[in-house]
Amino acid sequence: MTTAKTRVPAVEGWFTTDADAPALRGSRCRTCGTYAFPCETFFCGNPGCEGTEFDEVPLSRRGKVWSYTDARYKPPAPYVAADPYVPFCIAAVELAEEKMVVMGQVVPEITVDDLAVGTEVELVVDVLYEDDDHEYLVWKWRPLGSGTGGSDA
Length: 153
Fold this sequence. Notes:
0% of the residues lie in helices and 40% in strands. It has strands spanning 6-9, 25-29, 35-36, 54-58, 62-71, 88-95, 101-106, 120-130, 134-143. It is globular and about 50 Å long. By secondary structure, it is mainly β. It has no helices and 9 strands. The strands form 2 sheets. Strands 5-6-7-9-8 form a 5-stranded mixed β-barrel. A 3-stranded antiparallel sheet has the order 3-2-4, with no helix packed on it. The two termini are 23 Å apart.
């Protein structure tokens, strides 16, 4: 008998796993309004601000590719790679509202040949790796209208 694996974030607290609308968890400085990801906890990253209080906010789920590349070489630990290693695409995405850039993997089956600077993408949740009991989830970027990859958790 096969039992379902428990789906858990690979990095706790950085994103939600809502099946309909997963989102990155960011912060917004109460003093100047600067957004940050991951959440700021001590001081504002804006050099012109001395703010130390933040609100946790969901960040935009959509954005445009700012830059992209492929990961031809296996990343070092703590990254858990497939064995054998399978190269994947990485994109730096400028979030629609916040205008900040967030890096992340692109869904499987999308390669650098499928992307261009300015490609519109959306955030999805997908499995990074699994063990006997768990599927470890991360956010990934999926080109709008691609219908490819992502196993929205």
